[in-house]
Amino acid sequence: MELKVIPIVQVVIAMLLMALVQHFLPTLNYSDIINPKINLTLITLLVFIAILIGFFAIYSFRKHRTTVNPSKPETSSQVVDSGIYQYSRNPMYLAMLLALLAYAFYLENFLAFLICGLFVWYIGKYQITPEERMLTKLFGPDYDNYKNSVRRWL
User: Fold this and answer.
1) Inside any domain, residue 22
2) CB contact at 8 A, 21 and 111
3) Around Cβ 37, how many Cβ atoms within 10 Å?
4) In whole angstroms, how large is the CA radius of gyration of the chain?
5) Is residue 16 part of a domain?
6) CA proximity to 8, closest of 75, 46, 58
7) Please, which residues bridge with residue 29 across strands?
8) Do residues 94 and 153 touch, judged by C-beta distance below 8 A?
9) Which residue range is the domain that position 60 belongs to?
10) Is there a domain that residue 2 lies in?
């Protein structure tokens, strides 16, 4: 499998990169452009939605008695296609992205949002693609049908 770094560590790395960008390039700050109340509302909303999506994603996996361990997709026992998984194939990664976006808004630095894009690219290439290959191998047409009917992110 191509995975080298587990997803939660990828989130921590992205957050560290965002903090470094803010530290070394504070002039790219946009705090004068957006009202602080609007920014705080966005942060709160994103964190709340991220927690909610993450909770429902884990709940669905537990309900179907399959693994939530992203580094071992080969131990999956079935295709989870109900609950939040009927809207997104990767709600856990979506929750992580929303949390990163909340942090980018908190930092108020334009470049922090580029790191969110880097996270999407990295997790897509080194996490999601290998997972999907393994799930196709395990579940064949069932997973292919699911993959063709539900979007990756939203």
Assistant:
1) no
2) yes
3) 8
4) 17
5) no
6) 58
7) 109
8) yes
9) 36-149
10) no
Residue given tokens 């903090």 in the structure block: 19
In this structure, are residues 86 and 142 in contact, taking their beta carbons and an 8 Å threshold?
no
Token look-up 């957006």 returns 34
Proportion of the chain in helix, strand, coil states, percent, rounded to 5: 75, 0, 25
Do 119 and 28 form a contact (C-beta atoms < 8 A)? no
Within 13 A of 13's CA, how many CA atoms are on the CB side?
12
Enumerate residues 6+ apart whose C-beta is below 8 A from 128.
90, 93, 152
Residues 92, 84: contact at Cβ < 8 Å?
A: no
Q: pLDDT truncated to tens, each residue of the chain (154 aa)?
A: 455 689 999 999 999 999 999 999 998 888 888 999 999 999 999 999 999 999 999 999 999 988 887 777 778 889 999 999 999 999 999 999 999 999 999 999 999 999 999 999 999 999 999 999 999 999 999 999 999 999 999 8
Look up the pTM and report it: 0.93
Burial class (CB in 10 A: 0-12, 13-18, 19+), 61: buried
Beta strands in 21-116 (DSSP E): none
**CB distance 91 to 52 below 8 Å:** no
In a domain, 12, yes or no: no
